[in-house]
Request: fold
Amino acid sequence: MGEERCAHGLVVGQCGECKPPSRGLPGQVYVTDGGLVFHRSPDCRDLLRGQSRARRQGRDTHDARRVALTDALAQGRAACVPCFPAHYARVGASPGSRQQARQVPSGTPFSAPPGTAPAPAPAPSAAARTPGRLPLPEPKGHQRDVVYLRAEGHCVVLGTAGSGKSTMALHRAHFLAHAPGIGGPTLLVTFNRALANHLRSVVGGGPQGVRITTYHQFACHYLRESTGTAVNVCSVKPRLVGTALGHVRERRRTTGGVLSRPVDFFTDELRWMAGHGITDRETYVSARTRRLGRGRPLAAEDREAVFDVHEEYLRLRAPRWQYDWDDLAGAVRRRLAEDDRPRPCRHIVVDEGQDFTPEMIRSLAAAVPDDGSLTFFADYAQQIYGSRMSWRSLGLHVPEGPVRFEENYRNSEPIAALAHAASRMPHFRDEVEMVEPRRPGPASAGSGPRPMVLRADDEAGQLRLAARAALAQYGARKRVAVLMPTREHEDRLVPLLSCGGTVTVRRLDAKLEGWTDGPLLCYGTYSAAKGLEFDSVILPLCDAALLPRPGMVAAHGVEEARARQARELYVALTRARTELLLLHSGRLTDLLPDETSGLLHEMAAA
Reply:
């Protein structure tokens, strides 16, 4: 590796600790154990008065010790006002409202409409005057460096499953919201609403100064606030695309060629167009934008027919809806280009960025000011929504390259070994930049049983065995999830899990609110579990006839379907910390290493 690295192990230009300290703040400061602020000198009068008060009250006192400014910030400490008057005069804030000049009302990360005065920031409570530590594991080793990457421009962090990306994203957002001189309103954006809800519950609703949201929540809020009008989003796109396809077939008097493809193919193609900002026929037909994620490129005449379907879909949609969930990002980017008001936030952190379309990332990059930052966390092995585009095509300027994490801290050694082998299979190989997980070693979450494979008589038997295993794990006070490729079998599974209402079962979906620290029993799809983790994961319906899904094969062809389904399955199996059970009734899917690999343990049905 010929890359020049700084004293902290990061590529030169990436490290926030190597940058000159903010004006008015030194690189080294003084702290005491249990103290809430940092000081310029161990002789600070406030510090000495606090120690005297503690001694009078019979409490232990500690001498101030010298630490790096970034260490003090990572511990949630604020600057001492008497020690750093120049800093607070410059940012126009007290420790409890450091971003007063940029702060907006809690719960709304957007500026006030033109002509209205912004609401005054509420006075902070005593408990909120200093941002506290996050109730999360402390970042380990190289993870910690990511928290302090530079706070201007674009940063890219690529990591394998289980490398702690979501934890790093939360710590990074907390740092960017509160760091003196560079902090400001910060958005942490995810694709999956269940993950956003989970992150909010983990940190108690969200760290002070940080708003956790999904991309589509951000987009709808911004468009509604910036235009002053309601945002009507079409939620029946596949149905309208099917109607549009029928009209084009009638008009062209043919059902052959590309028009013989199923509706899912056209829905996926229109999503790809919207995600890449393609709105005109010439750009699409001439194939100016490179298309990954399809075995054979479409011929020009086929593209003409697809664009006819696109135009007919827009015509059918226009009377009732302005947007659909796919073209919201393009609308946000265009609106931001015309919006000369202050940007709604100073920093944006993107978690699970591999599932964001290029237009989503471009719009988020446009939503931060010149002195702000966009930090992009991703794992392209988990890219399950079909775009399969590298971060390099997203318009991000990262001359020093991405930071990479290959260590898996979540999964036990046997599960990590299966994930490692799965990521090396042929259907994972394409031109998208992936971080291959290291062969499991000391960094993995300890030893455990090999992933188990159990054969049932039929699909109904698989669901019964899945429910029995899940309830046994739940009874052992564990967090367990039953994950399936689609929601098709949920109605048959839920009665088996709920035991007549005696067990509380949670569905992984957009409505999921709140998480408990104790045992938990969940069910849902592979994609709904993105970013989450459980002690035990049970995967029924792992038959070769079901994975890849027949509908996916019909829409995209065998090779592309295998590539997409393999990534979904990889997401599912890497949700498990210590125990993984695969169920099938026919031949086991070949999207995973087979039983002869030694990575799986075949069980006899009880």
User: Anything to note?
Assistant: The chain has 18 helices and 19 strands. Residues 89-130 have pLDDT under 50 and may be disordered. The first strand starts at residue 28 and ends at 31.
